[in-house]
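Quiz preparation item.
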């Protein structure tokens, strides 16, 4: 691995090399600026994944009560696992400045993009001496996936990255890339200051996104395991110390317990089963990277990228075999190792006249197929004004933040509502709470009881008295549904007064004063 810490001395015979290095940096910065502009358009278009409402609710609550927040989704003393260093930091910005949750999301997206750009520059350079490897890593990271699928935060393909750029998992991914590059540097320099930073970074990643922490830990072990035994003997004590720093910081986190989150995440692992559906179709462009991994394995079986790839694939298969589908979240590690290996191989081929055509062919084929496969993602980077009106009306565009803001004029922050499944997601991001959260809540102790109460409340065979009693039990004073839901529940219009309605929602008032 190249030493990135020692500045190169400039000699006359190095002038051309230094000029080429500066050109490479300039090209990378140019590519990053273009990508930043495209992702800014998508973010401004509000082309988010549906989890945006979960994060907006968290930002809203932390901006109001950063030091003693309530559950952002339901009226409960149980904490939310999204109270992470990332979200608390943005919440503090909102608390100081009064910025709206959507503004905090924009700010987070900008921070996360900078971290990713730095990480995707530093990480590949830890395993390659070719100056163009970071550029190709960035390119393959965006396009070398497959057809559709994988619209998950922390997955950096064009079909996914823009939909969750402001999410905590992307922040954790950016920190992870930089931290892993820092680990490589520590193994070369044994600078003790890096150990403290690595310990803090490990804690931040763990507290921000547990699944990202999983694949980061696998990558870190692979990097350390790739070192000669004499190096391991010299660094093992320091690495254990950094791990201890991380463990102490995680255990000291005041917002929730890591043990409760780990058990809750395991219990909700079934939500990730979709990751294994049509896996070959969604990830077949990993195959060229696996070939590159094979080239590296022929030279050195303990190559860190080889170990990362093998370990990631092993965990992925284990997750499928044991129905532990949450382990599918190691796919970003499998992708990262294959993309860096392919970038390094291709960069070397492009520098050699005899293999240049092969390198160009790889870039062209992967690029074309990858762009076709991610068309649903990159088309969201087109300015809204240039998109045909018939396309703008699709749910992906319609269901953003703006249409629901007016709910805030009806429900107070402390009001509770029974809501339809979609509105269970939306309402807490704007104001108030719902009985059943529309998001994964591994730390919520009474979710089953809440779901049973909601089923009973929306049961058409229930009487008005029974329905009102259920509402009183859960402190609910409103009902929020989508307009298309109203015909399915004839008792809504019969028994309750409409408090507000729009093309996107209808709010009914519960209580004696709510009846006609």
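Solution:
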């Amino acid at each position: 691995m190249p030493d990135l810490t020692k500045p190169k001395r400039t000699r006359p015979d190095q002038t051309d090399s230094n000029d080429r290095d500066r050109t490479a940096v300039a090209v990378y910065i140019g590519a990053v600026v273009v990508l930043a502009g495209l992702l800014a358009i998508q973010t401004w278009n509000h082309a988010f994944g549906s989890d945006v409402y979960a994060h907006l609710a968290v930002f809203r609550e932390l901006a109001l009560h950063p030091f003693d927040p309530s559950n952002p989704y339901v009226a409960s003393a149980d904490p939310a696992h999204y109270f992470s260093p990332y979200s608390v930091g943005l919440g503090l910005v909102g608390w100081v400045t009064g910025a709206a949750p959507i503004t905090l999301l924009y700010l987070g997206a900008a921070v996360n993009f900078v971290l990713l750009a730095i990480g995707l520059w530093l990480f590949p350079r830890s395993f390659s001496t070719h100056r163009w490897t970071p550029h190709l890593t960035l390119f393959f990271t965006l396009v070398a996936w497959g057809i559709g699928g994988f619209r998950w935060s922390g997955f950096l393909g064009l079909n996914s990255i823009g939909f969750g750029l402001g999410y905590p998992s992307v922040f954790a991914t950016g920190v992870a890339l930089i931290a892993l590059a820092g680990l490589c540097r520590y193994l070369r320099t044994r600078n003790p200051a890096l150990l403290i930073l690595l310990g803090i970074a490990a804690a931040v990643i763990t507290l921000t996104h547990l699944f990202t922490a999983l694949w980061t830990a696998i990558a870190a072990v692979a990097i350390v395991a790739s070192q000669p035994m004499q190096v391991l003997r010299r660094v093992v004590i320091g690495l254990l110390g950094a791990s201890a720093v991380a463990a102490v910081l995680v255990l000291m986190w005041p917002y929730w317990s890591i043990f409760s989150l780990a058990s809750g995440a395991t219990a909700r692992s079934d939500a990730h089963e979709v990751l294994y559906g049509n896996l070959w179709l969604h990830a077949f462009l990993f195959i060229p990277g696996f070939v590159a991994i094979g080239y590296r394995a022929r030279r050195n079986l303990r190559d860190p990228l080889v170990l990362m790839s093998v370990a990631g694939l092993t965990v992925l298969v284990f997750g499928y075999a044991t129905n532990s589908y949450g382990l599918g979240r190691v796919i970003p590690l499998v992708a990262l190792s294959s993309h860096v290996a392919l970038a390094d191989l291709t960069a070397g081929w492009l520098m050699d006249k005899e293999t240049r055509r092969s390198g160009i062919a790889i870039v062209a084929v992967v690029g074309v197929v990858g762009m076709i496969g991610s068309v649903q993602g990159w088309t969201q980077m087109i300015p809204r004004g240039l998109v045909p009106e018939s396309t703008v009306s699709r749910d992906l565009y319609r269901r953003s933040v703006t249409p629901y803001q007016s709910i805030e004029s009806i429900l107070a922050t402390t009001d509770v509502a029974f809501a339809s499944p979609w509105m269970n997601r939306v309402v807490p991001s704007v104001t108030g709470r719902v009985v059943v959260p529309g998001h994964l809540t591994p730390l919520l102790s009474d979710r089953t009881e809440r779901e049973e109460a909601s089923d009973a409340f929306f049961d058409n065979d229930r009487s008005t008295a029974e329905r009102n009693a259920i509402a009183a039990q859960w402190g609910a004073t409103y009902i929020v549904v989508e307009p298309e839901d109203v015909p399915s529940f004839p008792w809504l219009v019969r028994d309750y007064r409409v408090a507000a309605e729009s093309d996107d929602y209808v709010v009914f008032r519960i209580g004696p004063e709510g009846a006609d």
